[in-house]
Amino acid sequence: MDRVELAILMDCYGGLLTQRQRSLLEQSIDEDFSLSEIAEREGISRQGVRDAIMKAERQLYAADRAIGLKEKLRKLNEALDETETKVDALECGESEKRELYDCICRLRQISEE
């Protein structure tokens, strides 16, 4: 499965996983450890790590199918990009543009929380 997509899903729905599931996924995705390395660190079998990670991934994808937050965030960022392009094209003063850019920036920050 795509690491970037899983990282996004972790950001959106990681709180729905157990601490252990989050830890195993973070080691796999963020730290790029192999199943063997994680197994050694955690004191469990490689198969146990794989099963736990696969279960966590299924839970993340199921949550996204049910809630759809990832797609909503993608659409929001797309709309913000379009808005920023339109602000660039506006014929108004720099202070007005700066105010609009600040609003866009605040919206991006909110979407990343």
Describe the protein.
It is a single chain. The protein is mainly alpha-helical and 113 residues long. The chain is built from six helices and no strands. The longest helix is centred in the middle third of the chain and has 22 residues, at 46-67. The chain starts with a helix and ends with a helix.
SS-derived structural category: mainly alpha
Give the helices and strands as they follow along the chain. Answer: HHHHHH
The main β sheet shows up as: none
The CA-CA distance between the termini, in Å, is 24 Å
The radius of gyration over CA amounts to: 19 Å
The count of strands amounts to 0
Number of helices: 6
Globular, elongated, flat, extended or rod-shaped: what is the shape?
elongated
Quaternary structure: single chain
Task: Provide the helix percentage.
Answer: over 70%
Report strand %.
Answer: under 5%
Mean of residue pLDDT values:
91
Low-confidence residue ranges = none
